[in-house]
Amino acid sequence: MLLTISTTYEPATDLGFLLHKNPQRHQGVELSFGTAHVFYPEASKARCTVAVLVAVDPVDLVRNRKGPTGGESSLGQYVNDRPYAASSHLSAAINKLFSTAMSGRCKERPELVDVAMSFEVWLPTLPVRGSADLLERLFEPLGYVVTSTPIPLDTTFPNWGPSRYCDVRLTTTTLLRDLLEQLLVLIPVLDDTKHYWVGPDEIDRLLRRGGEWLTGHPERELITKRYLRHDRALTNQALERLLDVEDIDEVESANDNVEEAVERTISLNDQRIIAVVEAIRNSGARRVLDLGCGSAKLMRALLADTHADKVVGVDVSYRSLEAGARRLHLDTMTPRQRDRVELLHGSLTYRDRRLEGFDAAAVVEVIEHLDPSRLESFERVVFEHAAPTVIVITTPNVEYNVRFDGLAPGTMRHPDHRFEWTRAEFAQWATGVAERRGYGVTFSGIGPDDPEVGSPTQMAVFTK
Ligand code: SAH
Q: Which atom of ligand 1 lies closest to the CA of 320?
């Protein structure tokens, strides 16, 4: 079976860098069912074509009876289309040959991975099971132009009509990694069969390759169902997880538009997130730390609502980090999204080189959990060693506690709090830190501003 991908992006030979495959060399890779060959039929500055030819070993198909060819018909084991038709074998080859390209890495020319290029894909024998317009329904929403010619069942007897195979050409302008992921998922969906057993791992695979574009695809149900071989339980799980991602996006983009009037009706926790995200966004930071990130609520908002290319969360509690990984769906993020996030296990009272080289840090509702005797090491770790340009710290304003109905006089808001400061106490500490460490500092309140006792949360923004 054959697949070719051509580009006229100039210089077209950049395709070789992106695929991590040298246009001058033929390369053969062994797969469990045969050999995949990669070579370039043409490689000039104006046009470059890569070909993937998969030679399926027919003996292996007979030996591994699990696949669609090992069914009841014994003849079917020997006479079948698998060596010729683009199918899950081709997807497996794409996965094996181009996984680096799909993860969005390019060693020699990293800037190329984010360049949309014009591509022409040729699949000379693509099985299309289902309605005549299926190819268009799958590829057009993703921005492809589809040209497809049905292949006759038998060229000597044209009146036998067309077979289910088509000679297909797709043109589009997109990122190479998106193109590869979409082919990898949609080829076996069109064929509607797979050569291997489909288990729960396959959901992760689908969400990893399809995460972003699949969520918004009008045929996402059909794609998911067919990709998971019509297994109802797996399909439901996959769709739930896809929708979950969508819900989070909606909640977070809703936060974007939150105006002062709305803020009154939302929880203090949400208001803190909004205020901190805004401070970080205004600073223009690209590399952001969330120190004492807990279960990553703020991180989720930072990822959605700022232009940060890297958001790193640090917490001393491993269990919180696990909850954070689940909240962020780290295991099913697309490789591109995954590269933006990191969760680190560590303490803010020990110097940690992993925290160096960042533009901004958020330390939200954390300092009051530190023993006062540890504040000095915290100060050195964050302000002297990590030393990002902007540091945002929030902590409770203890004066406001009298306004909380459920809080007995003299008790703190959380049993693990080591202290809660008045506005004057916080200002005194923060001004001292700023002077010692060469930062400027401004203060504000988060939540309703009471004329007597101020806001429930106080925030300091330090800038170097
Ligand atoms: N910033 C989060 C969590 C606040 S709760 C939020 O606003 O939702 C305080 C967090 O600080 C907890 O997750 C706790 O595990 C973490 N923490 C406490 N001491 C720490 C230390 N020394 N180093 C790193 N994290 C610490």
A: 13
